[in-house]
């Protein structure tokens, strides 16, 4: 596994102070070690939280939780780089249960980060050197692109269908690597980055069969698959059965329980709070150690207060309560998807149709292909639609190598429902204007 690490990760100096932290816990040890401030000087005496437990216990009440005593001290103080031990343990229990991983295994563990973004960015630095190559979906979550650019990494996009990356395109690209003109001058890929559930921007979700096919190819070429599953708990395709006992869609990690070819990223942002900035990474201890070492030298650790607050909520709910809560959120987004798509259908599919899309079964995005006089949505979305009072993101923003795209990413997570109809009416109006100005005959 160490051979997967970048030169940067292999030569990074460990933090002299943080690497000795575990020794402070040894029985009888007197620590003169760190420059931790004395907690007695901190002015916060208690953090009280009113938490909605409707979804966790089926009651309609809020419960009041307190962070005090040792838990408060731990939250306010510097703490382990990989996360507060009880929170790490909680997410490891969750991963073992949801992804059917062996609980006590040397093959995997979890680290907490300041959002899954933090862990993703650090993992890219831990795996890729200047001149290395990464494979991504086309289009791709743009949050990773600045880091790839900064690292000097080549990005090769793989053709998708409505389940994300297509196994035939992936296999073809890899097999023809040394003969195809577009790839033969590049280093053979080390890593593939995928967002298998409710992808951002496409909303695409990969089925179990699709994941098996992709993972087979990944194994054949010994790639490492970065499974960015920020929308895993927003999969509304099969909510309805008992949230606690139902079998959730199998992740890539569940198909690779020894974590040889998969490093998985989860986020608390979509299910608890995005402002807490907490996410977690699950995979080989060797890779996680490299990510932790980056944290130790960069931001030391994720926020202890955020971790303390989230831990209090999760321990009050238990894993079953968390899963019930997650399903309630998935239903919330499914209802929004239905409402949003109905308005899109009314305005954009009215004859002559002005768009087409695949209905998302997870996440918060409707990725719409606009049928325009020229297949480039950039000007229409970023200028004309904005002037008409509707904001969305042109497809070009999600391409690793910017080029024209007829797509637009629309989000149904937050828009007030009473404004959705008007939003699509405005979008339709600017599309019709573009056709009228072009003088071209419209395709039926
Ligand atoms: C695909 C994807 N990955 C990662 C993230 C980052 O999430 P977090 O808030 O956990 O850092 C996002 C955020 O929107 C996302 O869409």
From TrEMBL:
Residues 71-424 form the Aminotransferase class I/classII large domain. Keywords: Aminotransferase, Pyridoxal phosphate, Transferase. GO terms for biological process: alpha-amino acid metabolic process. It holds the Pfam family Aminotran_1_2. It comes from the Eukaryota. One of its GO terms (molecular function) is pyridoxal phosphate binding. Its cofactor is pyridoxal 5'-phosphate. Belongs to the class-I pyridoxal-phosphate-dependent aminotransferase family. This is PLP-dependent transferase. It comes from Acaromyces ingoldii.
């Amino acid at each position: 596994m160490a051979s997967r690490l970048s030169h940067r990760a292999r030569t990074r100096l460990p933090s002299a102070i943080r690497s000795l932290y575990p020794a402070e816990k040894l029985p009888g040890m007197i620590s003169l070690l760190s420059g931790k401030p004395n907690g007695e000087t901190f002015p916060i005496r208690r953090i009280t939280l009113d938490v909605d437990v409707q979804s966790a216990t089926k009651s309609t009440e809020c419960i009041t939780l307190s962070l005090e005593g040792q838990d408060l001290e731990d939250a306010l103080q510097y703490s382990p780089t990989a996360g507060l031990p009880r929170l790490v343990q909680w997410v490891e229990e969750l991963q073992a249960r949801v992804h059917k991983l062996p609980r006590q295994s040397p093959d995997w563990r979890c680290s907490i980060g300041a959002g899954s973004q933090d862990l993703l960015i650090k993992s890219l630095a831990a795996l890729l050197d200047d001149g290395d190559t990464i494979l991504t979906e086309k289009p791709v979550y743009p949050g990773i692109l600045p880091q790839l650019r900064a690292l000097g990494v080549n990005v090769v996009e793989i053709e998708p269908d409505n389940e994300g990356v297509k196994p035939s395109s992936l296999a073809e690209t890899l097999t023809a690597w040394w003969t195809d003109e577009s790839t033969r001058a590049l280093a053979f890929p080390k890593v593939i980055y995928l967002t298998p559930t409710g992808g951002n921007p496409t909303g695409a979700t990969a089925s179990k069969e699709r994941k098996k096919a992709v993972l087979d190819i990944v194994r054949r070429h010994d790639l490492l698959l970065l499974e960015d599953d920020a929308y895993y708990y927003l999969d509304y395709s099969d909510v309805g059965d008992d949230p606690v006992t139902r079998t959730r869609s199998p992740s890539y990690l569940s198909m690779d329980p020894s974590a040889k070819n998969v490093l998985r990223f989860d986020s608390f942002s979509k299910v608890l709070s995005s402002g807490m900035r907490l996410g977690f990474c699950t995979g080989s201890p060797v890779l996680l150690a490299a990510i932790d070492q980056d944290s130790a030298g960069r931001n030391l650790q994720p926020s202890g207060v955020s971790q303390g607050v989230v831990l209090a909520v999760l321990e009050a709910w238990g894993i079953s309560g968390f899963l019930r809560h997650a399903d309630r959120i998935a239903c919330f987004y499914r209802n929004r998807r239905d409402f949003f798509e109905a308005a899109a259908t009314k305005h954009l599919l009215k004859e002559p149709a002005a768009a087409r899309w695949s209905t998302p079964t997870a996440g918060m995005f409707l990725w719409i292909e606009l049928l325009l006089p020229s297949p480039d949505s950039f000007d229409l979305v970023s200028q004309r639609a904005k002037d008409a009072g509707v904001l969305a993101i042109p497809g070009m923003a999600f391409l690793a190598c910017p080029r024209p795209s007829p797509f637009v990413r629309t989000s149904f997570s937050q828009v007030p429902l009473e404004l959705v109809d008007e939003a699509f009416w405005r979008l339709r109006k600017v599309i019709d204007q573009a056709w009228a100005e072009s003088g071209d005959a419209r395709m039926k």
